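Now read the record:
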Amino acid sequence: MISQRVNHNSHFFKVILESNLRNGDLRVPKSFVKKYWKGMRNPISLRLPNLTEWKVYWMKRGGDVWFLNGWKEFAEYLSLDAAQFLMFQHEGKSQFKVIVFGKSALEVKYPLSIGNDKKVDESDCSLETVVDGKRKKYSSSSQSCKKIKTNIKEEPECYDERKNDEKKASSGFDIDDMSKALLEKVKNTFRSKNHFFLCICQRTYTERDILSIPKDFLEHLRKKGGHGTLSVKERSWDVRIKFSSYKQALLCEGWRTFSQDNNLKFGDVCAFVLDKREGISFQVVIFRLGEHCSTLC
């Protein structure tokens, strides 16, 4: 009787928002996290009524639990739209049954199967570099780059519990530790013939119109202040570069627009590669924490 009562109560509901589809994430209700999330492991398994299962990795952000890597593919598989309604029922351990309701409030018709040829986007499993303006990608050998399987048990978990410093894997990712791990990964992998600096997107950088340039990089700037340009692929953004009396350089007056347009998140890592042309211009390479969290073992 006790187990039946727990199963009956341990579910939560979510209305899909545009931001869930655009950002590729979904927040678990705090009340559910507080009562049922202790001991939850990564990744969780989302099982649909058509018997397919999906691996989704979750992460803690400021006390909240978010579905990240794998959620976007799950949403695309179901062709989810804003205002649809999902019910998640916890079936024990890290298993959830998911029922999807359309805008008509009726349960949707599910795809017949996942298809053995469906793969995770390889861009989620690689590091992109800029060398004299040419982009190269170095693919990761992570298990997350394998084909998505209908039987999730075939894929190993990211963390090895035998390591003392990784015991908190069962309680989820710590965003500070994971962002530092991503920074180290980029340091060891990223190469460019041009001068560049790396930075972790702190909350200040994602919420305000300001980003600090490391002091040891200032010697490479030909101009001391003025207007600059940030570029990602073929698109560019104008910013202002200010120097303070404390020999500190700041990107501002355009940084926030750049951050919002590129959907930067707390914990992401950016590489700013200085162009050799006149003025101050950077090619920016973005390493998204949500896309790499499953590979940071």
Q: What stands out?
A: The two ends are 40 Å apart (CA to CA). The helical segments are 2-9, 18-23, 30-36, 71-78, 175-189, 203-207, 255-261, 289-292.
